User: What shape does this take?
Amino acid sequence: MKRQAAFTLVELLVVIAIIGILVALLMPAVQGARESARRLRCSNNLYNLGRAFQAHEETHGFFPTAGGPTWEWHMTYENGVPTVGERQHGGWGFQILKHIEATAVWIGGDKNAADQERSILAISTPNPIFFCPSRRRPEVVVAKDWLKYPWNTGQTFGHAKNDYAAATLDRSTDSAGDGIVRNMKITQAAHVRDGLSNTILLAEKRHNLNCLGRLVVNDNEGYTCGWNHDTLRFTGRQPMPDFYSDDCGDAGNDLFGSSHPTGFNVVMGDGAVKFFPFDIDLTTFRNLGNRADGKAVVLPD
Assistant: This one.
């Protein structure tokens, strides 16, 4: 009888080793493909947020404000209807809800509900469009109400977070801010004298990844809050990638940034989505956060 051919132990180990090497070689490509898909979804989020701003401007004649004058306010309603423009204390994330297929959350559910309950519904309802998939899934953290105006409900409820912020140079030259999205002050397209295509509307913001899922500075009030670092960041500071730190008091120094390897997504005032490197020239970046400084800019390739 002939003996049947079979793998020896050495040959089997060689095959396993080769498979391991191939898998190791393929993993970076697989991870790269996944990150490319996540980055595309993130840029699509910003594209749709930009469209919502455009729809708001077409409807009302001005862009959403940053709300305010501080983070301490609930959403504002008059006769059960959300106010707009300079009468709305809730931030831009709340003001665009009806333009991102979230009208029920914007209205506040039941038309007979108290304004406090309407506000809580908005604050606590997450929307995937506000989250970059490279960083986290939609996230809600439960905490007792610490807002002050026009009331404190004393209730405990969820606070839906966000990964995108409006852009402004700083607060020093204009108490309402230098960007398109301003503190309790409307901006019309004509006010953006540098051109909508040369002014940043929204961009990804930097986070301490070790502290996701907690209430931390600049990542606590959530997407609805007015004039706060949760929803506003400064172009006068160099953007940086996400980081890990045991100090949850360090939430990113009010910087723009992302969990993408080389840069971050930005949507301009005209709705165009760009990808800027972290090492973007700071002078250029500063100028992009000012809607009317008259300074020429050259956008990164």
Q: What stands out?
A: The first helix runs from residue 9 to 60. Residues 14 and 20 are 10 Å apart (CA to CA). The first strand starts at residue 77 and ends at 78. DSSP finds five helices and nine strands in the chain.
